[in-house]
């Protein structure tokens, strides 16, 4: 007589089985963000953290960090790091000031003609790309580690910012330039009267929000259908719909809050455009696949015929241009080019990427994950400020959050 032994599954195994196909890392970050929003809504005086004005300020204040995080996640996925982005942002802010505001009054720049506001922005971003070429050359073709090159760049471009500004500030900037960092779409609510929307709301903000929610569902359903068609693992139905309902509610709530403030910030439009663009680049193009391949296994990438040097070179050109855009945004927001602008930006961008689920060793990470990491940092800092938490405690908590995020990444890899 034979006896069959059956191993009883633990509750943890049952839960794990039901959540098969769920990206626990990305969804965990998403749930952490929701938890932070709820926590600060309950603890800040008069629920100030979820007021329309605070939501608007939160978007504008963190936009330039999110732009940097987009470039930084690509660099980190490829196995590099960039410590110079804050200094590049300051230098490009100085360049934008020279090009747009005071080329004649600033000593040594009398030869340079003044440019229109849009010319100053394009010129500044072009200089940022050239800076990226400089650093990319040393990393990709000379073979110096990115840590060393960008550490030198952090000092070099901070010094160039001081030299360009001659240790003074440049400003104010034209209204059109400032609108990039401080402006809103249809702040005057001119569309409200045409379609009968009450004056306490911004009609454009409501329309954009509705379109955004529809776009989320279309994108998520198409992605799920594609995975099913190619027999790839997908999230359980209850998780898929539950997650997207919560996401839709959050987006709708944010849009309604912004519509009760000044409307959709132009900074948010820039950030959303970059998220969509770079998500497509990383997921749908050979360049994005090459970045993941290089970070995942460099030797295999070389043997497969990928031009690793060229990919690394353009990675730094790209982050140079994005750091320049970040410098333009912070300069527009401050309405002044200052030598200390961008101080600490590199740490915020790197933290956003690692909190957002990127692997320390490279090969893992997403643009949306780094955006979630950046928003967690922004919500955390904003909530602590509203609760009058001292800067010493804030820095301690931020350091612990980063450490725990990386520790979770290491732990999850060991379990696999």
Structural overview:
The chain is mainly α and 416 residues long. 72% of the residues lie in helices and 0% in strands. It has helices spanning 11-18, 24-43, 52-77, 85-100, 117-142, 146-165, 175-182, 192-195, 203-229, 237-260, 266-284, 286-296, 298-303, 308-334, 345-355, 367-386, 391-415. Residues 1-6 have low confidence and may be disordered.
Taking all residues together, what is the mean pLDDT?
Answer: 86
> What integer value in Å does the Rg equal?
23 Å
Low-confidence stretches: 1-6
Major sheet, described briefly? none
Summed up, the helix count is: 17
Fraction of helical residues? over 70%
Secondary-structure class: mainly alpha
What is the overall silhouette? globular
Summarize the structure.
The protein is mainly α.
Features:
single chain; 416 residues; mainly alpha; 17 helices; 0% strand; globular; disordered N terminus
Topology record:
Elements: H1 11-18, H2 24-43, H3 52-77, H4 85-100, H5 117-142, H6 146-165, H7 175-182, H8 192-195, H9 203-229, H10 237-260, H11 266-284, H12 286-296, H13 298-303, H14 308-334, H15 345-355, H16 367-386, H17 391-415
Helix pairs in contact: 2-16, 3-10, 3-11, 3-12, 3-14, 3-15, 3-16, 4-5, 4-6, 4-14, 5-6, 5-14, 7-14, 9-10, 11-12, 15-16
